[in-house]
Each structure stands twice: as C-alpha cells, then as structure tokens.
Specification:
This protein has 401 residues and is α/β, with parallel strands linked by helices. The protein contains 15 helices and 14 strands. The chain has a 6-stranded parallel sheet, with helices on both faces. Strands 11-10-9-12-13-14 form a 6-stranded parallel sheet, with helices on both faces. Helix 3 packs parallel to helix 4 and helix 7 packs antiparallel against helix 8.
Length: 401
C-alpha cells in the first residue's frame, strides 16, 4: 500500500484524486478571500498521475519529532506541489527543520523560480537550505523549465530535471496533439484573466493592463467569450456573488485609478457583468475548457488546462514564469511588452502547434522518467517518440551540469 504526503496541498481532496477549495459550498465564508485556483489545478493534476492509497499533508509550520518518526515509519515519500517557490520573498516556515528529520524522499514536482524585472534573483539562506535538502533526498529534483534549472544549478544543485508541470499531463495522454480547425469554425473562446499584477515582475503595468483590456474586447467582438477568472475577489463576486456583492466588486475596482484609466471602461464593465466564470472546483474548469474552441490569455494554468484537454491555447507572456512555461512546451505565445499588436490569424498556424505537440511528447517522457528514477509509483507511460522534433528544441529531459 503506497502512502504519500504533500507539502502545500491547496485544496481538499475528494473521490481519491479530485480537488476543490476547502468547504467550497460555503461560499459566504471565502468569497472575500483571494486564493489562486490554479494552484489547485496543479495539485489535482499531480494526484491524477500517481498511484497511491493514502494521502496526508506534511505539516511544516512546526516540528513534532514524534509525528515525524511516525511519518518516517509509515509513509513512502512526500511531494512538494509544483509552484513558484524560488523567489526572494518565499517564507518556508519551519520546512528546513522538518526536512532535516525526514528520512523519506521529498519529490519536487515541477517547482519554479521567478525572476525580478531587474537585477539578479537573490534567495534567502533558508530557501537555499530547503532546496538543497530536497535535492539531497532524491535522485533528481523536478523543475518547470530552463531558467529554474539554471537558478538551482547556480546553487550547486546538479541533479535537476526539466519536467514542465503536472497540469499539462493531467489526462495522461502521451500522444496528445493539438489539431487546429479552420478559424472560421471557432466560436466559443475562453479568455483567462489576470487583472492583478505586481510591478516587481511585470515591467510596464500600463501596457499590461491596456493590452489585457484590448484582448478581451477584441475577442468578445468576434466570438462568444467566457472570461475565466482564477481567484481575485472582485472577479469571484461578479461570477458567483449576489447583486449586492457584484456592486461591491465594481465599487472596489473603481477605487483603483489604474482600473478606471487603463482597464475598466464601459465595454469591459458589461463583459465583466455578463461573461465572468469562476469555480472553486477544478473539475468544473476542465468541463468548461472541453467545450471551448480556443483558450488564450494571461493565466498560466488556465491555459495549460485547455492544452491538456486538446483545446488550442495561446499564451500572453509578461514575466519569467510565463515565458519559461511557453518555452518549455513551445506553446504559441505573445510577448505583452513587445510593442506589437496581436492578430489571431498570425498564430492560427498548425506549424506553431506542431512545435508544441513535439515538445509535449518530449516533456511527457521527461516527467515519466523523473518519477521512475525517483521510485515513485505512477500512471504515466514510458518513453514516447517525439512528433517531428527539431534540433532547435531544447531537450527537457537533460540533467543540468
């Protein structure tokens, strides 16, 4: 019987490997709380790739020697849910103290580094310690892309594998491929929203928001759109709240000068009122993207959920994290800060998605090999043959030297 633990679970588990937000049906208790449901996508997707009987959470807020002794005796491994952990502000709580006492492997399941807009990424000594403890406990440490691999390499962590993100592989289809219909056949389009953004990572907030606004309006003028939010309080209220809560949401948005100046004009308000989608249940997002012809926009995991289900997606990149994902999987992407306008026709080319198809096969193999070499019981197939891979594509299975 395989017994496993998770660090940072991001949601409650039901029916063995499905995830939803904690007490999701009690919306009144958390409608005023921001949580990124994309983190739940990763958690849900991770579970769908693993064979296990029992799942528990590893507490990292305090050290309980007796509990850790029991964990060492009763559990097979612990995995760190893939997320953006490698950045200057990361607080690991007592993780290092807990990991020093653990004798079971700690699997880093597609973690990533976040580069600041300017200057070099500076990590705390605690972050460096935690990452080295994880790397020392396993055959390899899994990261989402080349930048994250290089950051760890610079720390002297050599046993790194580029494995992308579990969300891409949640359907466990080694032969998944995106095939574009004629653009004239596209009618249902999802736009993934990320209205909130930090100037620490996005170099030009005005450009970010106006480009975002123009994308939403252009898609709505052309297609039947669904605006896909992932946890901001105001968007959540507009999707699920009462009429009074929706009024509260707009009042809160209008208090921000940037919102009324660069983002929230009359057309956007109408779309926000009529086209917003949000759910605290991962399965409902999956159901949504399966019914869409195209998903595009700013949300890393919302876009990846679409690709995992065979729905074409185009990324709008604005920081090192989104660029790294697009590069790892060779996903068609638009640089928000390039100064260029976006024309969908330029991206609606099968050749662009064939590059994704080939990279997907490579990274699927890398993920499968990563789990196998760490002796994790998993559901993924063995190595698959890449589809028309080219020499210019990075080999995501490589070990960083």
């Amino acid at each position: 019987m395989t017994r496993i633990l998770v660090i940072s679970p991001s949601g409650e588990v039901y029916d063995h490997d499905n995830v939803r937000w904690y007490k999701h049906a009690q919306l009144e208790n958390h409608i005023n709380h921001y949580h990124n449901i994309g983190d739940a996508f990763v958690f849900d997707s991770s579970l769908k790739l693993l064979n296990f009987e029992t799942l528990s959470e590893l507490p990292i807020a305090h050290v309980d020697p007796a509990a850790i002794d029991r964990i060492n005796a009763e559990y097979d491994y612990v995995f760190l849910r893939g997320s953006n952990y490698v950045h200057a502000q990361m607080n690991w709580s007592r993780t290092a103290d807990v990991l020093r006492r653990l004798k079971i492997p700690v699997i880093a399941f597609g973690i990533g580094a976040q580069a600041p807009v300017s200057g070099k990424l500076e990590l705390s000594e605690d972050s460096k310690t935690v990452l080295r403890l994880i790397a020392d406990s396993t055959a390899s440490l899994g990261v989402r892309g080349a930048y994250s691999a290089q950051v760890l390499n610079d720390l002297g962590i050599k046993n790194v594998r580029i494995i992308g993100c579990p969300t891409a592989f949640r359907a466990n289809r080694p032969d998944l491929a995106i095939r574009l219909p004629a653009l004239e056949q596209v009618s249902q389009v999802g736009v993934t929203l990320r209205r909130e953004v930090s100037k620490t990572y996005a170099q030009d907030i005005r450009r970010y928001l106006t480009f975002h606004r123009d994308l939403v309006k252009a898609m709505a003028a052309r297609f039947e759109v669904t605006l896909m939010a992932q946890g901001e309080i105001e968007e959540k209220k507009l999707a699920l709240g009462s009429p009074a809560q929706k009024d509260e949401a707009f009042a809160a948005l209008r208090q921000n000068e940037w919102a009324t100046t660069w983002y929230l004009d009359e057309a956007m308000e109408d779309l926000y009122r009529s086209k917003m989608f949000y759910s605290d249940v991962v399965a409902e997002y999956e159901k949504l993207v399966r019914g869409l012809d195209l998903v595009l926009g700013y949300r890393l995991h919302g876009n990846l959920m679409a690709l995992a289900n065979g729905t074409p997606s185009i990324y709008f990149t604005y920081d090192s994290r989104t660029v790294e994902f697009a590069d790892t999987f060779k996903i068609p992407s638009v640089d928000v800060f390039s100064g260029q306008d976006f024309r969908l026709e330029e991206y609606w080319e099968q050749a662009r998605f064939d590059r994704f198809n080939a990279a997907y096969a490579d990274v699927y193999s890398a993920m499968s090999a990563f789990l196998s070499e760490n002796k994790v019981d998993h559901k993924m197939a063995g190595p698959v043959v890449a589809q028309e891979a080219t020499q210019e594509q990075a080999e995501p299975q490589r070990k960083v030297a």
